[in-house]
Amino acid sequence: MSATTGVSNTFPDDPDASRHVDVLALSGAELLRFVLDAPKVWEALARCSRCGFQVLYLGILRDQRVSCMNCGDGFYELLDAAWWKNAANRMRRACRQDRTLLPAVKAEWEARHGDVPLPSFPESFAWLNTAWDTTDKRGRSFDARRHYELAHLVDRLSSGGISMNKIATILSTADYVVRQEIYDTLPGRVHRWLGEQFRTELRNLPYVGSKEELLRSVRWAHRQWTDPRARLRGERVRPRAKRGGITPPAPRP
Ligand SMILES: [Zn+2]
């Protein structure tokens, strides 16, 4: 039985924030992304009374005693309605304080889910449905998939022994035949590792403008994988300019 897997993010590369991020430590803005990540999280998020381990447990009852799978000593407790009401108010305040927050979150939603509408939220969160409908998404949709795809690809190619420079050269070559020519110069052990089919696969590999662009994608994806809270903060591949268009000065060495 896997009652804990009833709700999950539809985006398999994303780390499961409900498992790895302490919900009690989140800011209003982070809570907003957290709630949009896991449908019905306010009904299903249970925390261990002893160690704080979190699970999404659909169908758990308020008075049910389910032992924690992490420490074995504590029991899961649902966060109560008052806690979620307070959380919803903090999310709302965050949206008021930063007018770019909801438009950015809306763009992220559309990049992930296409034109799937926002689900209907219960009373405490109902303001979100209204605000959502009157918000325009901000800028171009952010395509997280592409960055994850590039990071997987780089992992695969480097495990075959191809250097980062060579990977960047291949991916920043648009012409498929030239890609193959570069690939053919690689040692036989690389070809054996990647398999016979790989030479034809080169046609379908994504194109990147430069090595720097590739490195930015890879760094971003690895950070998302190792720090689930990075996504709740809405970290981008390129750091955003500060509001008002002023870029902060570089820190002193
Ligand atoms: Zn525990």
Explain what you see.
By secondary structure, the chain is mainly alpha-helical. Among the domains are: 3-99, no CATH class; 144-211, no CATH class. It has helices at 17-20, 28-37, 41-44, 81-97, 101-113, 126-133, 144-159, 164-171, 176-184, 188-194, 198-201, 211-226, 228-232, and strands spanning 45-48, 54-56, 76-78. Strands 2-1-3 form a three-stranded antiparallel β-sheet. β1 and β2 form a beta hairpin. Zinc ion binds at residues 48, 50-51, 53, 68, 70-71, 74.
Describe this structure in a few short sentences.
The chain has 253 residues and is mainly alpha-helical. Among the domains are: 3-99, no CATH class; 144-211, no CATH class. It has helices spanning 17-20, 28-37, 41-44, 81-97, 101-113, 126-133, 144-159, 164-171, 176-184, 188-194, 198-201, 211-226, 228-232, and strands spanning 45-48, 54-56, 76-78.
Q: Tell me the major beta sheet.
A: 3 strands, antiparallel
Oligomer: single chain
| Global geometry | elongated
Residue runs with pLDDT of under 50 for 5 or more positions: 1-10, 243-248
Q: Give the overall pLDDT as a whole number.
A: 84
Bound molecules: zinc ion
Helix-strand string: HHHEEEHHHHHHHHHH
Share of helix, binned: 40-55%
Query: Kindly, what is the distance between the CA atoms of the first and last residues, rounded to a whole number of angstroms?
Result: 54 Å
Number of strands: 3
Strand content: under 5%
